[in-house]
Amino acid sequence: MENLQAAHQLCDVMTKRNVTSWNILISGYSKCGNLGCSLKLFKEMVKSGSFEEVILQWLVCLLSVVDIAQRVFDRMEIRNLVCWNAMIFGHCIHGKPEARLKLFTTVVDQTGADGKSISPDEITFISVLCACVRAELLTEGRSYFNPMIDLYKIKSNFAHYWCLANLYSGSGLIKKAEKILRKMPKDEKLPSES
Predict the structure, then answer these.
(1) Are the C-beta atoms of residues 107 and 76 closer than 8 Å to each other?
(2) Comparing C-alpha atoms, which of 190, 112, 125 is closest to residue 152?
(3) 68-122 residue pLDDT tens
(4) Distance in angstroms (rounded) separating the CA atoms of residues 176 and 166
(5) What residues does 117 pair with on adjacent strands?
């Protein structure tokens, strides 16, 4: 706690706080159980105009207390894809994959602040597939994979295939998992040792 207080004092004298400084303080107070201070700092961050810049990191670090993060998220007037992805991903990390799948269904039905629909991206689908793996939902996971490519025009990557292979192997379909990994398109950015 002493180190956290020292960090807070250092941040108080900073002329402009960046993503890292806000994230460290909010996360630190949250981990120490001082949620009141975390929320107070969050409000200060919003007033400072740094909200969009740090919302993903803040939600993810606070998601160890999923219910509070969900309440903050529910009160947000404007939710962009970054906010949606943070909540969807956080629910899976902290053991609520079914909540993640419900959020996914909601996000595809939402309209953004500019009146345009919010379309899921590759990160959204990694989160959704990961949720299916954690909840052992093979049928649902398969049902998300093809629309990701055909409907949303998202190029599948290593993480998508890895999740799909995990779904099959978790259901005892090892040969099918191996087949998916063998058919996975080569990603030029991955080293050959991967």
Answers:
(1) no
(2) 125
(3) 777 777 777 777 777 788 778 777 777 676 777 778 888 777 655 555 677 888 8
(4) 10
(5) 111
- pLDDT score recorded for residue 24: 75
Give tens-digit pLDDT for 116-127: 677 888 888 988
Count of all residues that appear for the chain in the document: 194
Q: Could you state, in order of their start, the residue ranges of all structural domains in the chain?
A: 1-58, 77-194
Q: Which residue pairs from 136-145 have beta carbons closer than 8 angstroms and sit at least 24 positions apart in sequence?
A: 136/167, 136/170, 136/171, 137/97, 137/101, 137/167, 138/167, 138/168, 138/170, 138/171, 138/173, 140/101, 141/167, 142/167, 144/104
Contact 166, 138 (CB under 8 A): no
Separation CA 74–CA 87 (nearest Å): 10
Contacts (Cβ under 8 Å, ≥6 apart) of 173: 138
Q: CATH topology for 77-194? A: 1.25.40
